[in-house]
Amino acid sequence: MGIHHGRPAPPGPRHSVELDRAEALRLLGSVSLGRVVFTQHALPTIRPVNHVLDDGDVIIRTHEGAALTSYTQTTGPPGVVVAYEADTIDPDTHLGWTVVATGYARLVTDPQELARYQRMLQPWVKQTMDYAVRIHPDLVTGIRLTDTDTDTDADEDEPANR
Q1: Exposed, middle or buried: residue 29 (CB in 10 Å: 0-12, 13-18, 19+)?
Q2: 0.90 cut: is pTM over it?
């Protein structure tokens, strides 16, 4: 499915097609920006971050004093529960996909592994990012938004007038 920039959104609702884990992770790895969701002072907090996917894990870099750095430093195994969301939705056509990976986040403490991630993942902001966080997703969900008139996976047993 291609995204057609500049085309006005066709009339009608979008069809939501569930993605399997492999396709969801493939799509997540195809973009570099997402949002990490965690708890800070008992409230949900969301931060936009860039990432890489490494063997099915989401890797982000953080800095000293960052809320997620502090939170993962004070939590033992298995880590802190987080969600990571990334998407590509065309603003004109409203077509695209979204993926959410939920699991445990831990600081990367092995010096060689940390150095590797520092080479692989360059921060988008001008700030020293001395830490890396690995998110191991236990649950990966995703949907693709398609045109209802071009969707070939629609259930043909559905009544026409719902």
Answers
A1: middle
A2: no
CB 132 within 8 A of CB 117: yes
Q: How would DSSP label each residue in 67-90? A: HHHHHHHS--TT-EEEEEEEEEE-
Identify the helix (H) or strand (E) that includes residue 113: helix 111-120
Average pLDDT of every residue of the chain: 85
In angstroms, rounded to a whole number, what is the distance separating the alpha carbons of residues 45 and 39? 6
108 in Cβ contact with 156 (< 8 Å): no
Burial (CB count <10 Å: 0-12, 13-18, 19+), residue 82: buried
For the record, the structure tokens of 139 come out as 């649950």
At 26-63, the pLDDT tens digits run 999 999 999 999 998 889 999 999 999 999 999 999 99
Sign for the CA dihedral angle at 46, 136, 116, 113 comes to positive
Whether 49 contacts 34, CB under 8 Å: yes
The answer to whether the beta carbons of residues 1 and 146 sit under 8 Å apart is yes
Gap between the Cα atoms of 63 and 126, Å rounded:
11
Return d(Cα 154, Cα 85) in angstroms, integer.
Answer: 26
